[in-house]
């Protein structure tokens, strides 16, 4: 019997004044010819040269040199693929041992649409690149690991300052009709229909020298349009270059440090840098607002930036981000204080029960809607697709069904989305879109960095941020603890890519962002609940490891004088595992549930194992652990019981207060 688990991993360390950190930068520019670009999904947009190189910028942050770090990596890429994250972590493990794994490493991409593609394991995202491009993938991996290696070698003691400010005239909402679908009282709380706040961290060496910067600000990196064939890091990459040139003004070449500046992405799902707005290219008149068309055609409606061409527009939007970052950097005085910690969990996003206002149901297997094929005002699609489509056409349904007709269950779950691609029911030659998704939060003192696994719209990101902030406020009130205010930064396009995440209200209009919300109308509430849970586990006084297994009925075997679980400790000296806790111990809980009628007939159920890190005598033992689950299953067409067992991956616990 196959056994799967989902493990909630939390770790923290005791804060001791200054932090220990290092930065590194390295080139990740792939092939400069003959590879399709990732972003616009335009088959004719093939690389034919370079305008700006792509870089990996790595930031390692620790309590001190001996404690476990967190690692934030900002990439000049279209998005982060799960395959990229997995391979980076594997290579870091081989070089740095237990210092890094998937739980404390966060990869976030700037979302440039002008870099070579072909680095995904999910079929949908590799179609226009005509499959996986090994050469490009290896260049990326090598460069990312080298940037981490440099950050590791450059670690110093110092302090981290935080500053926030408002940047206007650098972004507009490209789906204002969808945004207006959100409740009026919610919209009234904000001054704009895009997030205009920039959050910035300034890294200062103990000798007083500033050595690094990260900022988060939401705006699509699509100043370079879909006619461009030169590799470019777009407005965010150029902003980073401009900042680094100013700080490294001693004649150093670009991309060589020592100062490293990251202009990271946030909740940019419906945010465009093309602030002149959409116009009909044949008449110059404004486009129709709901469907973003001109005389019924999407390809005639294109948004333009503030410049005379895409190169000047890229420079202008980059300069505006750079200027605001410089202003905040220069004015930063507030110091982050508190522990370095992190929390991470894989989640099956395809069948999560959700209750949100009048919306009741579950999330869905992935699917893409008709309006996905229409593209956006930043890059229109082809054929006769338009945004705002709530019904299919006989012709395109016929073409779709040649590939895979969506099941009734899938269609009902995604309503009112008319399904163009039933990606969740397509697994040849490989799965088309992810089912299991990484969720993660990093903590740097009184800042929480939320890893968004896709493109969250403005209001979607605001709801995540508010949910996390509310959890922190509640926990602080419970503990009656006065401390510095908590801040939340949203790190967009992190760890894996799940297309878009619109609010349930925005989803109803079925513009591009809603049609590309792959887990259905309740996607965002499911994520909000998940990040709320992670934030709560991260800041609560006590900590619990939570592992979830596909299991079988425990009545099949009562395991007399035995156990359904073990919590095992790895002895670094003997290299052997030993059992620390079983289901007899107060510190553990074995919780069993059935999974509904269908799974009841199949005999499939869920076993949840919880382990309280602090024992009855108040002791927490740091080190490497794993959790194992045991039982017996009854096959569908046999009465003979079969033993099974499963194990989590090894994980490290760092105890603290």
Automatic annotation (TrEMBL):
GO terms for biological process: ceramide catabolic process; long-chain fatty acid biosynthetic process; sphingosine biosynthetic process. Residues 539-653 form the Neutral/alkaline non-lysosomal ceramidase C-terminal domain. It comes from the Eukaryota. Keywords: Hydrolase, Lipid metabolism, Metal-binding, Signal, Sphingolipid metabolism, Zinc. It comes from Fasciola hepatica (Liver fluke). This is Neutral ceramidase. The active site is at 272 (nucleophile). Belongs to the neutral ceramidase family. Its EC number is 3.5.1.23. One of its GO terms (cellular component) is extracellular region. The lineage of its organism: Eukaryota, Metazoa, Spiralia, Lophotrochozoa, Platyhelminthes. InterPro entries: Ceramidase_alk, NCDase_C_sf, NEUT/ALK_ceramidase_C, NEUT/ALK_ceramidase_N. The keyword Lipid biosynthesis does not apply.
């Amino acid at each position: 019997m196959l056994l799967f688990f989902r493990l909630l991993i939390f770790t923290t360390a005791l804060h001791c004044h200054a932090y220990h950190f290092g930065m590194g930068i390295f080139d990740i520019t792939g092939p400069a010819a003959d590879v399709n670009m990732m972003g616009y999904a335009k088959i004719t947009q093939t690389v034919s040269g370079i305008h700006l190189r792509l870089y990996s910028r790595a930031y390692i942050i620790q309590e001190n040199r001996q404690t476990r770090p967190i690692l934030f990596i900002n990439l000049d890429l279209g998005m982060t693929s799960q395959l990229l994250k997995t391979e980076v972590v594997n290579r870091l493990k081989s070089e740095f041992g237990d210092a890094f794994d998937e739980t404390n490493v966060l990869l976030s991409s700037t979302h440039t649409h002008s870099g070579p593609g072909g680095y995904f394991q999910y079929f949908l995202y590799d179609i226009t690149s005509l499959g996986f491009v090994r050469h490009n993938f290896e260049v990326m991996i090598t460069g990312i690991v080298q940037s981490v290696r440099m950050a590791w070698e450059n670690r110093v003691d110092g302090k981290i300052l935080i500053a926030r400010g408002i940047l206007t005239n650098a972004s507009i909402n490209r789906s204002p009709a969808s945004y207006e679908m959100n409740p009026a009282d919610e919209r009234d709380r904000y001054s704009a229909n895009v997030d205009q706040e920039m959050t910035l961290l300034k890294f200062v060496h103990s000798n007083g020298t500033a050595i690094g910067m990260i900022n988060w600000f939401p705006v699509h990196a699509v100043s370079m349009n879909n006619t461009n064939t030169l590799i470019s890091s777009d407005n965010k990459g150029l902003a980073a270059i401009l900042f680094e040139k100013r700080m490294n003004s001693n004649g150093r070449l670009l991309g060589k440090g020592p100062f490293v500046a990251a202009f990271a992405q946030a909740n940019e799902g419906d945010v465009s840098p093309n602030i002149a707005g959409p116009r009909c290219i044949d008449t110059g008149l404004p486009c129709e607002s709901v469907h973003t068309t001109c005389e019924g055609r999407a390809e005639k409606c294109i948004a333009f930036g503030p410049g005379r061409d895409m190169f000047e527009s890229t420079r202008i939007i980059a300069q505006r981000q750079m200027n605001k970052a410089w202003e905040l950097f220069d004015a930063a005085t507030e110091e982050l204080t508190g522990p370095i910690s992190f929390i991470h969990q894989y989640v099956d996003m395809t069948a999560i029960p959700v209750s949100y206002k009048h919306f009741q149901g579950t999330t869905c297997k992935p699917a893409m809607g008709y309006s996905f094929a229409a593209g956006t005002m930043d890059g229109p699609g082809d054929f006769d697709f338009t945004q705002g489509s709530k019904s299919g056409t006989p012709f395109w349904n016929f073409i779709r069904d040649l590939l895979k007709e969506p099941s009734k269950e899938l269609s009902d779950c995604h309503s009112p989305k008319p399904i163009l691609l039933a990606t969740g029911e397509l697994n040849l030659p490989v799965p088309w879109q992810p089912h299991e998704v990484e969720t993660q939060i990093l903590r740097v003192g009184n800042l929480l960095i939320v890893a968004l696994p896709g493109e969250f719209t403005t209001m979607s990101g605001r709801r995540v941020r508010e949910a996390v902030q509310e959890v922190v406020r509640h926990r602080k009130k419970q503990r009656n603890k006065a401390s510095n205010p908590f801040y939340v930064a949203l790190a967009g396009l992190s760890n894996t890519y799940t297309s878009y995440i619109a609010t349930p209200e925005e989803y109803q209009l079925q513009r591009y962002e809603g049609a590309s919300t792959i887990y259905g109308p309740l996607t965002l509430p499911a994520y909000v609940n998940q990040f709320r849970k992670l934030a709560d586990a991260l800041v609560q006084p006590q900590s619990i490891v939570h592992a979830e297994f596909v299991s079988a009925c425990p009545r099949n075997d009562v395991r007399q004088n035995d156990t359904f679980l073990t919590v095992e400790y790895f002895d670094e000296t003997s290299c052997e595992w030993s059992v620390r806790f079983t289901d007899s111990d107060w510190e553990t809980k074995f919780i069993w549930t059935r999974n509904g009628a269908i799974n009841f007939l199949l005999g499939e159920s869920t076993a949840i194992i919880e382990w309280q890190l602090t024992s009855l005598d108040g002791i927490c033992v740091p080190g490497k652990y794993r959790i194992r689950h045991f039982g017996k299953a009854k096959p569908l067409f046999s009465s003979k019981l079969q033993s099974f067992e499963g194990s989590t991956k090894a994980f490290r616990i760092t105890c603290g207060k």
